[in-house]
Every structure is written in structure tokens, then in C-alpha cells.
Amino acid sequence: MSEENTNGAVAPVDAATGPSFTVEKIYVKDVSFESPNAPAVFNDAVQPELQLNLNQRVQRLGESAFEVVLAVTLTCKAGEKTAYVAEVQQAGVFGLVGLDPQSIDVLLGTQCPNILFPYVRSLVSELIQAGGFPPFFLQPINFEGLYAETLRQRQEQGETSLADSEPAGNA
């Protein structure tokens, strides 16, 4: 028995090896940086205010492959002016074979974003610094806590799993 993975390669599926979780591909899906008030904003001596929006989307690609997109939008305002907006959508394709639906849901909601987050953090920091601003380092995010909150909200709304919906977490 064999299974075609998302890259088109055929990998053997052996029941004796048991369940598996694989990272098939990690890539930047979308990236944007805007500094609409540059260069005037560089001279403003106001304390900047930061707003972080975090979102996660899951899409089933096949029987055992999922795309997970971790999207971060960081908006920095200096007074009434927008200093910059950095948007990053970091994605990954993950293979989940031989797992029950609950285990798949947990992995998609916790481990996949944990794998993607260092890439997001690095890219956001590079964009902001390349835009002429001091480096910004995203603080660690508790994806397990966000997943627990998402799970609670889904139960209230009668939804079943991440693969069937597009949950969003805001930090």
C-alpha cells in the first residue's frame, strides 16, 4: 500500500510504523510591509502603540495532508499616524497519517503553528528593521492556550474540528 504526498512523491504507508506527523513544506504565502507616513514619521517623538492580530487557517489538501497558515499583522501607530503595518502569512504543509480525528485536530491547532511561529517572528523582525524602524521581536505565543480557547468556542457553536473550520485566535 502506498500514499501520494502533497509533493507528488509516493511514500509507503506501513501499518507497523504506526501514526506519523511530517512537515512536508514550509513557505511564505504572503508578505507585506507599508510605511505610509515615512519619512516624516521617523521624526515623531511620540510613544508608538502596537497592535498585533494573529490568525490561523487550516485547509485539508488530501486524505492526510493539511495546509496550515499562520498570519500575523502588526500595526504600529505614532500618535494618529500609522508608522508601519507588517503582514506575514507563513504556511506549511503537514502530513498526518494514521491518527484519530481528535489527535489531528490537536496537532493542527498546536504543533503546526508552533513550528511556523519562528519563521513568522524572523520575517516580521526583518521587515520592520528593513523599513527603517528599530527591530521588533514577537514574544512567544501559547498556542496550546489559544487552541483550548478555540476549542471552547467551537463547542459553543457546535463546530467539530479545525479541518472543517477556519478558527482565528487574536493575541
Layout of SSEs?
Blueprint: E1 2-4, E2 10-12, E3 20-34, E4 48-60, E5 65-78, E6 81-97, H1 101-130, H2 143-157
Antiparallel strand pairs: 1-2, 3-6, 4-5, 5-6
Helix pairs in contact: 1-2
Question: What does the model show?
Answer:
26% of the residues lie in helices and 38% in strands. The protein is elongated, with a radius of gyration of 19 Å. The model is unreliable at 8-13 and 165-171 (pLDDT under 50). It has helices spanning 101-130, 143-157, and strands at residues 2-4, 10-12, 20-34, 48-60, 65-78, 81-97. The longest helix has 30 residues, at 101-130.
Spatial extent as radius of gyration: 19 Å
User: Which structural class do you get from the secondary structure elements?
Assistant: alpha+beta
Summarize the helix and strand pattern as letters. Answer: EEEEEEHH
> Mean of residue pLDDT?
86
**Tally of helical runs:** 2
Class of the domain at 16-133 in CATH? Alpha Beta
SS elements, strand count: 6
The low-pLDDT segments are: 8-13, 165-171
Give the spatial strand order of the biggest sheet.
Answer: 3-6-5-4
CATH topology type of the domain at 16-133: Bacterial Protein-export protein SecB
Helix content: 25-40%
Our measurement of the CA-to-CA distance between the termini, rounded to an integer number of angstroms, reads: 43 Å
CATH superfamily of the domain at 16-133: SecB-like
For the largest beta-sheet, the strand count, sense and barrel status come to: 4 strands, antiparallel
